[in-house]
Amino acid sequence: MPDALAVQGLSMSFSGLKAVDDLSFRVAQGSVCGLIGPNGAGKSTILNCLTRITTPDAGHVEALGFDLLAEPIHRLPERGVMRTFQNLELFTDLSAVDNVAMGCAARLRAGWTAELLGLPASRRATRAAYATADAALAELGLSEIRDRRVADLPFGTQKQVELARALVAEPRLLMMDEPAAGMNHTESTELGRVIRRLGAEHGITILLVEHDMGLVMSACDRIIVVVQGRLIAEGTPQEIRANHKVIEAYLGE
Ligand code: ADP
Ligand code: MG
After folding, report:
1. What is the pTM of this model?
2. pLDDT tens digit sequence for 168-199
3. Ligand 1 pocket mutation, candidates 12, 13, 14, criterion most atoms within 8 A of CB
4. ipTM exceeding 0.85, yes/no
5. 243 in Cβ contact with 59 (< 8 Å)
6. Are 83 and 166 in contact (CB under 8 A)?
7. Nearest residue CA, atom 25 of ligand 1?
8. Distance from C-alpha of 221 to C-alpha of 177, rounded to nearest angstrom
9. Which residue from 4, 20, 83, 206 puts its CA 20 to 30 A from 171's CA?
10. Which residue segments constitute the domains of the chain, with CATH numbers given?
11. What's in the keyword line of the UniProt record (predicted)?
12. Which ligand has an atom closest to residue 19 CA?
């Protein structure tokens, strides 16, 4: 399998503090890679660099065969690179289905722009977006909350809506920042199954930042462990679980 993501020498400092320190790792296409580490380890900063929200001080990143750090941020969804956020980026006054349908904009850009301009030719695109959104909600078991206002949903359900919105954009590389936060055990177990399916059936490569070790250990093919911005270990879930450095620095805390 070729790599969907190859990170080389990534570094990012905030006024002297090295949040990401000369980090290198690779993620094979269609695999699920966990990114774990204690609070403040630099995980969100890594995702911010890899999705162009922050510009790193140094490093080279190849994603899906292109130079990720040279790509304008607005082109990333079209290129197949998507992310979800630790603290959600949803339109909370809109319904679940409205939020998810908006995720289709990356694919149906022309149609969506036309819609904003009130052009009738776009109606088909809008219908297609809502059909796609309904399918994604169904796949995640969320059909029941289709018309609920996002603000009225529990945080864990909002995270699932955010995932649905990312999926309708048909990502090839999906980065998720703590998707199980706020979920109960049943929800996070189901999320684990969804994540495995995304890789195995849809060939989506996933970089998963998560604190829920049950989810990380069951969903990931490989795991990388970061402490103070540096990679301290990488391997299969079994290898990580047995790694003394990881247990000392993180799992045993
Ligand atoms: P994690 O997601 O692993 O908890 P973060 O990437 O959020 O860690 O943070 C890594 C380090 O960088 C922390 O020490 C944090 O305080 C610092 N940091 C993150 N973002 C900023 C920022 N915008 N300005 C200053 N410091 C930041
Ligand atoms: Mg974080």
Report:
1. 0.89
2. 988 999 999 998 988 889 889 988 998 998 88
3. 14
4. yes
5. no
6. yes
7. 14
8. 17
9. 20
10. 1-80+172-253 (3.40.50.300), 89-170 (3.40.50.300)
11. ATP-binding, Nucleotide-binding, Transport
12. 1
